[in-house]
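Researcher: Next sequence.
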Amino acid sequence: MSNRLAHETSPYLLQHAENPVDWLPWSDEAFAEARRRAVPVLLSVGYSSCHWCHVMAHESFEDEETAAYLNEHFVSVKVDREERPDVDAVYMEAVQAATGQGGWPMTVFLTPEAEPFYFGTYFPPEPRHGMPSFRQVLEGVRTAWADRRDEVAEVAGRIVRDLAGRTLAFDAPHPPGQDDLHAALMGLAREFDAVRGGFGGAPKFPPSMVLEFLLRHHARTGSEGALQMVQATCEAMARGGIYDQLGGGFARYAVDGGWTVPHFEKMLYDNALLCRVYAHLWRATGSDLARRIALETADFMVRELRTDQGGLASALDADSDDGSGAHVEGAFYVWTPERLREVLGEEDGRFAEGYFGVTEDGTFEHGTSVLQLPDGEPLVDAARVASVRQRLLEARERRPRPGRDDKIVAAWNGLAVAALAETGAYFDRPDLIEAATETADLLVRTHMDYHGRLTRTSLDGQAGTHAGVLEDYADVAEGFLALAAVSGEAVWVEFAGLLLDTVLRHFAAPDGALYDTADDAEALIRRPQDPTDNAAPSGWTAAAGALLSYAALTGSSRHREAAERALGVVTALGSRVPRFIGWGLAVAEAVFDGPREIAVVGSLEDPATRALHRTALLGTAPGAVVAVGPPGSEELPLLADRPLFKERPAAYVCRNFTCDAPTGEPKVLASLIVGRS
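Model: Next structure:
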């Protein structure tokens, strides 16, 4: 019998619709029921591809006895963190403040007024490693609620007051200067893992936004140290188990410090961001490895995540059927020497063992190995490697596949639009540009209304009910602006402008700070506001970047000033926590450089225009914007009043709409738009 999640559109919530727990979605109805029954609320937050969420669901939420206890003594609320990042952010802040750590599944007990009073993440079904069982936690909370309710209310009130008092220090009214950016570089150098690439220890996450900052810093200053950190990290990730050596695409993170063992779920946002990083690394260095990884990752996104409506699904699960009916983490991806020989034969099987680092002992669990390319890889026959990879991929396709979360998240699709558009343009892949355009069309058609307001998610072409948050507006605008630069279609700039006007109207404070939710969004126990990057750019810094690019294309001082005010937080945090504000630092590099504005005047039907346009897109000047269109075009201010040069297509390189002399020569243009000027 289904519970009250049966009519939700979130795949994660629907996974729990048949639980014996009488789940409710986050709603006024849930808290009204808690008040009527005078019981606390169990808030359980997760997402569909979360391994430990599945584990806790199987151990506890599918257990009839546990469910009966929950149904009698609690109102149980299930939240998809990808659908409601605002709810997740508010209560995760409380969990981290109380316990010093966080994660998913997140387990929080609330009063009927939504005030938190007890926190945790995963709880096992039996006591383990000093951790109480989930049933012990439930019984303890129920006893405290029944016998010491005044004390519980006092604790909850104190927590809410503490959260409300956590105001963000925003006392730097200007973007970072050269000294600030250098200090951030030095901070990153101190945390860089010179042996294994990346920053910090295990678990190790792809530092996409930091890598973008380092690429821009190298372009502007010539810093070889910045470029070396990017190259070492990108090569280590590409060789490691975190990268799918057969099908392309990256897992969410590595559980070890050497990128060997992934947490096998694959997220759209990681792959969009990393696709763009590797494409930008190729643009800076011409690296064959960077080119291959960018293209393989783009192809992975289109092949594995594309939905019938033209969008890109959120994620692939970590778990899949191992062939025995049991769902096992990594089962789809791992190999043993025996399995290699079964597929490839004895000779190629032994070759694949050495080439991909597969051992008898295994690098993962139960003697299995994750494919990787060990350091010191010998020179091999490329045709043989391609044949081995193809045969292994075909064999893997016959295994039970991981589940896919088909939910379309606006922000992540915006990131993917930018990545696919640029990768398609750099490597002459019009099919990728077409995929980016179809995704952008879906966002306009399904997620965006006539007033420039966004819906956070959709499923099967139907918009969800939850309002977009700041990262949705910022990342979709970023995607539209990147697509405009590649396609020459000014309508995408217009759409971006609608979204960014909504940001200024509904998300910005008078001092230039930005909130994660709109001023007319559902009120929670506090209004979330976080400028630091997590797995993707923060809404705050992503908005600053999109505002800056839009201002560079249109000449809007209002958008430029808003971007610079927002970047004040990077001045405050960049030297202290550069790992966690990498995109803000990248945007600051663009401010410091101008950014440069490149107007290409001519018809894209003309090969000479196309040559200038491609050269403009390949420029490494930090955050440079590109507009292309016929002379006299009024659709984009950057193109207005820019005539042909000697009756031929021309390119103008400008800062703040003040331009150098035009040129019709791609080589001359290229010299004007390298990072250092």
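Model: The first strand starts at residue 24 and ends at 25. Residues 170 and 569 are 6 Å apart (CA to CA).
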